[in-house]
Automatic annotation (TrEMBL):
GO terms for biological process: thiamine biosynthetic process. It catalyses: 4-amino-2-methyl-5-(phosphooxymethyl)pyrimidine + ATP = 4-amino-2-methyl-5-(diphosphooxymethyl)pyrimidine + ADP; 4-amino-5-hydroxymethyl-2-methylpyrimidine + ATP = 4-amino-2-methyl-5-(phosphooxymethyl)pyrimidine + ADP + H(+). One of its GO terms (cellular component) is cytosol. This is Hydroxymethylpyrimidine/phosphomethylpyrimidine kinase.
Length: 269
């Protein structure tokens, strides 16, 4: 069985972070191990508290997993600060990890800052050079580049090209915040641009969308898909999970990670 390791924060509301990653991997038929970097007290409306995990414990988790389980793909999410990023980079190098999907979690859906300024700089210079795939949304891409975004395809292409210079093999700038009837993501592989397109779903159930997409990319790569197939699979999976989301909570609700397993010609069972 293919195996993904997710290194991310815990979401007590169950919609994002480690919880979203594990559900995504399970739904796609891939085993998921996990390393928790931070605890968050959150629901569909807000994050009320964040507690980074001590680095000794993060290292212990990483070593415990890598010393026993052969991991096919690693996916990172919330890393919180510079020290944690440096530790993760150290262990990824020590265990010669070749397949890494980086979801650059900088702020939450509700607007809470989840990565320090020092951490952001460290992410750029130390983690991105190891990435196979980088999956920022427009706002995250702008923060990584240190500039204000323009919400159009032209800027997304320029951003993807510039982000690729930090070292990731593939950059996906997600366009979920664009206006229009289509949700368009820009993919750059260092040579050519590709567009991932789906119809826009007008819903408030979008909590954990970025985590879900990146985890689906990791799971698909673990199953042996080439990157274009993996990205399209992740796009379709995430779109379906949004389209069939359940009404949970009173804010931005979570996705339905098992929707593609439940759908038939009549919709969700």
């Amino acid at each position: 069985m293919q195996k993904v390791l997710t290194i991310a924060g815990s979401d007590s509301g169950g919609g994002a972070g480690i919880q979203a990653d594990i559900k995504t991997c399970q739904a796609l038929g891939v085993y998921s191990a996990s390393v928790i970097t931070a605890l968050t007290a959150q629901n569909t409306r807000e994050i009320t508290a964040v507690a980074p995990v001590e680095r000794a414990m993060i290292r212990a988790q990483l070593d415990a997993v890598f010393n026993d389980i052969h991991i096919d793909v690693v996916k990172t999410g919330m890393l919180a600060n510079k020290g944690t990023i440096q530790l993760v980079v150290n262990r990824l190098r020590a265990y010669e990890v070749e397949n890494l999907v980086v979801d650059p979690v900088i702020t939450s859906t509700s607007g809470t800052v989840l990565l320090t300024e020092e951490g952001l700089d460290c992410l750029r210079t130390e983690l991105l050079p190891l990435a196979s795939v980088l999956t920022p949304n427009i706002d995250e891409a702008a923060l990584l580049l240190g500039e204000s975004p323009t919400f159009d395809i032209k800027w997304m292409k320029q951003a993807a090209k510039r982000l690729q210079r930090f070292g990731p093999q593939i950059v996906v700038v997600k366009g979920g915040h664009l206006e229009g009837s289509e949700a368009v993501d820009v993919v750059y592989d260092g040579t050519t641009f590709t567009m991932l397109q789906s119809s826009r779903i007008h819903t408030s159930s979008t909590h954990g969308t970025g985590c879900t997409f990146a985890a689906a990319v990791a799971a698909s790569l673990a199953k042996g898909m080439v990157y274009k197939e993996a990205l399209q699979t992740a796009k379709t999976f995430t779109h379906t999970a949004i389209a069939h989301a359940f009404p949970i909570g009173t804010g931005k609700g979570p996705l339905n990670h098992y929707a593609h397993m439940q759908t038939d010609n009549k919709g969700v069972r």
